[in-house]
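Subject: for your reference before the review

Hello V.,

The reviewers asked for a structural picture of the protein, and I figured it would be easier to keep everything in one thread rather than splitting it across files. Below is the amino acid sequence we used in the manuscript, unchanged from the supplementary table.
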Amino acid sequence: MPVLERSRIPLVALEDMNAVHYEEVDLINQIDALLTRIESGAAEADELDALLNALQDHMIEHFRSEEARMEASGFPPYPIHKGEHDRVLLELGGLIDRWKRERDTAPVSRYIRETFPIWFEQHLGTMDAVTADFLARTGA
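And here is what came back from the structure prediction:
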């Protein structure tokens, strides 16, 4: 069973934002599947590097794009939303740095299977939902 299911994540008012969220769901599920293979001995731990980097790159681009739209539209709670993006990118960056140093899958597994899914669903259902509603209303 996937960690995140497309059908269960909160949808927002803008389809392009939903599409980006689906891409992240797919990346999280790919990482989860690889972790399962690593844990069973069917894959090498080094394969995790590329997927973690892909997730980080995707999230950086996702957040930059969203933040540019918020800024351009004059979205009032922009600083709060951007602050949450910054916090999550710092958290993910720390996890990746730790992975590169220690090569321990346990912290990665906890983050991918527990921490990230909870945050992601809450973020989409709150901050992203409000942002998408505002952007849809203002035509930004």
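For the response letter, the relevant points are probably these. The chain has a mean pLDDT of 97. Helices lie at 15-39, 48-73, 78-102, 105-138.

Happy to draft the paragraph if you're swamped.

O.
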